């Protein structure tokens, strides 16, 4: 599975319903499928001046059974 997120030098973005955000670790980041890329691009363009090294990252998720 491929998901996309916004990442800055300080961490990943977790988007709030009011349009704000907080910087978090990868386990709390807001992630989007490919059809959400337009929203991510718009958000990146809006916040680009506020955050250092803001970029869109592609996350590849692989599920496998875990045997302890």
Task: Describe, in plain words, how this protein is organized in 3D.
The chain has 68 residues and is α+β, with helices and mostly antiparallel strands. It has a domain at 1-26. It is 16% helix and 32% strand. It contains one helix and four strands; from the N terminus they run βββαβ. It has a four-stranded antiparallel β-sheet with strand order 3-2-1-4, with helices on one face. β2 and β3 (21-24) form a beta hairpin. The chain is globular, with a radius of gyration of 13 Å. The relative contact order is 0.33. The model has no long low-confidence stretch (mean pLDDT 95).
Helix-residue proportion: 10-25%
The low-confidence runs, each spanning 5 or more residues with pLDDT under 50, are none
Mass-distribution shape = globular
* Number of alpha- plus pi-helical segments: 1
Global Rg: 13 Å
Please write the string of helix (H) and strand (E) elements: EEEHE
Q: Largest sheet at a glance?
A: 4 strands, antiparallel
Number of strands: 4
User: What is the mean pLDDT?
Assistant: 95
Cα end-to-end separation: 24 Å
Q: Tell me the β content.
A: 25-35%
